C-alpha cells in the first residue's frame, strides 16, 4: 500500500478537490456513500426521462393496433360501394399498405 496521497481525477473541479482535502476520513466516507446514491438517483431519473420521451413519441398509438401493423400507421377512411370503412394505412418502401380496421359508424 502506497503512503502517497492519491491524485484526483482530472475531471474533478479544483474547488471540489480543495474542499475534499479538508475533510476527515469519516466525512470522506459519508461523501462517498452520498455520491454513489446521488449518481444512482440521477441515472434512474435519466432513464425515466428517456422512457417518458419514448412514450411521448408513441403516444397516440392505438391500443387496438394489430401486431402486424407498424406503429407509424395512420387510420384512413375508404368508401367502397357507398359504405365507409376505417383502414390502417402505412408506407412500406415505395408501396402503401392497408389493413381493414372496422366500418365507420354512421353517426360520425
UniProtKB/TrEMBL annotation:
Chain positions covered by the region annotation Disordered: 1-23, 39-74
Cross-referenced InterPro entries, in alphabetical order? Answer: DUF6788 (IPR046738)
Renumbered to this chain, the Pro residues biased-composition regions fall at 1-11
Residue intervals of the DUF6788 domain:
60-105
- Organism (species): Halosolutus amylolyticus
- Basic and acidic residues compositional bias, start-end: 39-64
Top-level taxon of origin: Archaea
Coiled coil spans: none
* Name of the featured protein: DUF6788 domain-containing protein
Amino acid at each position: 500500500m502506497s503512503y502517497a496521497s492519491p491524485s484526483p481525477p482530472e475531471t474533478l473541479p479544483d474547488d471540489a478537490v480543495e474542499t475534499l482535502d479538508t475533510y476527515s476520513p469519516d466525512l470522506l466516507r459519508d461523501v462517498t456513500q452520498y455520491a454513489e446514491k446521488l449518481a444512482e438517483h440521477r441515472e434512474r431519473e435519466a432513464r425515466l426521462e428517456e422512457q417518458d420521451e419514448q412514450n411521448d413519441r408513441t403516444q397516440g398509438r392505438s391500443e387496438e393496433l394489430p401486431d402486424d401493423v407498424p406503429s407509424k400507421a395512420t387510420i384512413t377512411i375508404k368508401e367502397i360501394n357507398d359504405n365507409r370503412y376505417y383502414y390502417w394505412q402505412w408506407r412500406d418502401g415505395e408501396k402503401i399498405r392497408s389493413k381493414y380496421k372496422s366500418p365507420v359508424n354512421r353517426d360520425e
